[in-house]
Amino acid sequence: AQSVTQLGSHVSVSEGALVLLRCNYSSSVPPYLFWYVQYPNQGLQLLLKYTTGATLVKGINGFEAEFKKSETSFHLTKPSAHMSDAAEYFCAVISGNTPLVFGKGTRLSVIA
Amino acid sequence: EPEVTQTPSHQVTQMGQEVILRCVPISNHLYFYWYRQILGQKVEFLVSFYNNEISEKSEIFDDQFSVERPDGSNFTLKIRSTKLEDSAMYFCASSEARGNTEAFFGQGTRLTVV
Question: Do A100 and B41 touch (CB under 8 A)?
Answer without folding.
Answer: no
